[in-house]
Specification:
single chain; 71% helix; 2 helices; mainly alpha; rod-shaped
Length: 83
């Protein structure tokens, strides 16, 4: 099973999505017997790569957020000690 095949949500895989959807339209019955399987495999690989890129970006963003939070806590604790 794959996620919804909306082009705006998967810009990295847009070309493969279009080919996959065209294959399904061109082969309405053969798709059930493996006609579009090669494209499905390519699509799955593309989704995995896309997810890895997003995961890495989210990890970098969380590291930045964690650093800002630690700096804020350090500043707040120093402010409390001064008072």
């Amino acid at each position: 099973m794959h996620p919804p095949l909306t082009l705006h949500r998967h810009p990295m895989c847009a070309e493969i999505i279009e080919q996959f959807q065209k294959c399904h339209l061109d082969h309405p019955y053969a798709k059930f017997f493996g006609e579009c399987t090669d494209l499905k495999i390519k699509l799955d690989k593309c989704f995995r790569q896309e997810k890895a890129v997003k995961r890495k970006a989210n990890f970098e963003e969380s590291k930045k957020l964690k650093e800002r939070l630690q700096a804020y806590r350090k500043e707040a604790s120093q402010t409390e000690n001064v008072m």
